[in-house]
Amino acid sequence: MKKKIVYVSIITFFLIIMIFLGVVFLRNKPDLNYKLEVVNEIDYMLYSDNNKFGVINKSGEVVVQAIYDEIQIPNPSKPLFICMYDYDIEKNQYNIKVLNEKSEQILYQYVVVEAIKINPVMNDIPYEKSVLKYKKDGKYGLIDFQGNIIVKAQYEEINGLDYREGLLIVKKNGKYGVININGAVVIKTKYDSIESDGYYEEGANYEKSGFIVNQKSGEDDRYGYIDSKGTQILENKYSQIQRIINTNKNDDIYLVAFENGKAGFYINKKNIIQHKYEDILYEINNDCLVLQEDSKQGISDFNGNIIIDIKYDNIFVFGKYINAQKDGQVDIYNYDTKQKVNYDNIIGLSQTSNDNYSIAITKDEKYKILDNQNNQIKEFEYDYLDYIDGDYFIACNNQKYGIVDIQGNEIIELRYDIIQKIEDTKILQGLYIEGNITDLIAENKVISSMENCDIYVKENYIIQQSENNIEYIGFDGNVLKNTQILDRELYAFKQDEKWGFVNKNDEIIINPEYDLVTEFNEYGYAGIKKDEKWGVINSNGEIIVEPTYSISSNNPKFIGKYYEYDPGYGEAYYISNNI
Questions:
Q1: Phi and psi, residue 131, nearest 5°
Q2: Measured between alpha carbons, how far is residue 98 from residues 101, 131, 220, 316, 574 in Å?
Q3: Is 68 within the bounds of a domain?
Q4: Which parts of 166-230 are beta strand (E)?
Q5: Residue 496 domain-assigned (yes or no)
Q6: Coil, helix or strand for 513?
Q7: 543-549 vs 185-191, strand pairing mode
Q8: Residue 514 maps to a domain
Q9: What is the distance in angstroms between the CA of the first residue and the CA of the last residue of the chain?
Q10: Spatial separation of the C-alpha atoms in residues 473 and 329, rounded to whole Å
Q11: Overall domain count for the chain
């Protein structure tokens, strides 16, 4: 009886130990979920003077003097600046100071601290915004902005991952893995390369994108696939893998993988189409696949059902119409009905966004409009047609573009060198190459015309700006006043070919005496142009800099006496001298 009590006591003791260890493990286990820092306001910017870099704040005041070779501002809403100087050739690195907004040194306990560079897909900030990497004894780890260690220095490399802010590629013992900014291991360090598949979903951004991973087998690369949660979906045995990232189906993962030189198709782990094709291409219009075998092409759906036989030299898809070429002839299929719809003298048929119309291409390469029964509406043809909206089309003859209706009437004369749509708006751009004149067209009429102008597409309106004029146009084509779209104390206005500023009540605050001005920016500064030179004014009407800067842009951005300069590579920064 006593022995039983001893056994029970031992078992109970071990259970208590296991529970204790489990609790400790869970408490210390890094969190697989992470939260990205959101930057709502830019408070600090790079500036340059005499080829050295410093930091200014949003009032244009110098925070860090321009005495450094390079400065990283990982989060422009927080006063932490990684300042690099005196490059050490032997160590292959800069000497580094981390400064705050008072130019006081912080994080001095770390000899090397660096921001983690990322590809700024979703914003303009090229760094991870809440963590830094530090170096100790030749290894890298992670710290937060207060200097707290998130991951001890154990990695040979820590780098950002394209398309996946918040996830980091790490290298250990020559192999790569993935951790997140909390330090949690998402993918173990056992691969020779890792890259994001680039999958994007509205509302989720790149959160559901997975990973294409490579493990070398001798001299050969062997690729596999890991989903966004870190679960391996395809083992590492393929010579190439790509994810179909723009499909209309969002619940599953669609992959094309090559094995022994042949392509197959997978939905998640399941092999739907066997590895027997030279290539498998995704066709976005009809959410189907183009299969190529023995240099011939056909169409299948995602279940592997052959819709169009694999016998054509080339297949081109225009909306619901599939144009299949073979031996110089074209067969046209309606994808919806899966039926051939060949017509005499037509070698191509494309669907428009209006179910009533399609555009046909004839054997002599002329374009004409067909109705929903595929009958030609009127006996007229063009060198080119593109559907706009309603009953209207962009048309081209003799290398000149205009707008016609379905009756063939020229609504806007075919006079432009090019007409193109501005995506996601009801506005067209018409360009005359001679004179470099751009017309903006809406509702089949010219609403704005300027020479040598720039077009800026904003969130819900367009700016057309030249050397002496500016127009605001809503996406619906209505011309807007700046007071309708901007929230400022003062607004640019034009009077007798000169520019000044008014308040919301249209009362003149700064007299119109300039050749051009910019609107006041969110920092309270505007540009003023006179005699081909730019200066700066604040919202109190005080001139910060007289017009002395030679700036090529029609819309420069100022903070204090500094203006933004884009060198064409790397980050933009602010300067106060002519380059």
A1: -135, 160
A2: 10, 14, 43, 56, 21
A3: no
A4: 167-172, 175-180, 185-191, 193-196, 211-217, 220-226
A5: yes
A6: strand
A7: unpaired
A8: yes
A9: 94
A10: 46
A11: 1
pLDDT of residue 577: 78
DSSP structure class, residue 123 = S
Number of C-beta neighbours around residue 559 at 10 A: 24
pLDDT along the chain (579 residues), means of 10: 49 54 44 83 95 96 97 97 93 92 95 92 86 96 97 97 93 97 96 94 85 94 95 96 84 94 96 97 91 96 94 90 90 87 83 92 91 85 95 96 95 96 94 96 94 91 91 93 91 94 93 94 95 94 94 92 90 82
Question: Does 422 fall in a domain?
Answer: no
Give the DSSP H or E segment for 553: none
Give the per-residue SS3 of 404-465: EECCCCEEEEEEECEEEECCCCCCEEEEECCCCEEEEEECCEEEEEEECCEEEECCCEEEEE
Distances (CA, A) of 440 to 192, 399, 444, 454, 573: 52, 19, 10, 12, 32
Structure tokens at 142: 């992670």
SS3 530: strand
Q: At 152, phi and psi to the nearest 5?
A: -65, 155
**Three-class DSSP category at 16:** helix
> What is the pTM for the complete model shown?
0.84
Type of residue at 349: L
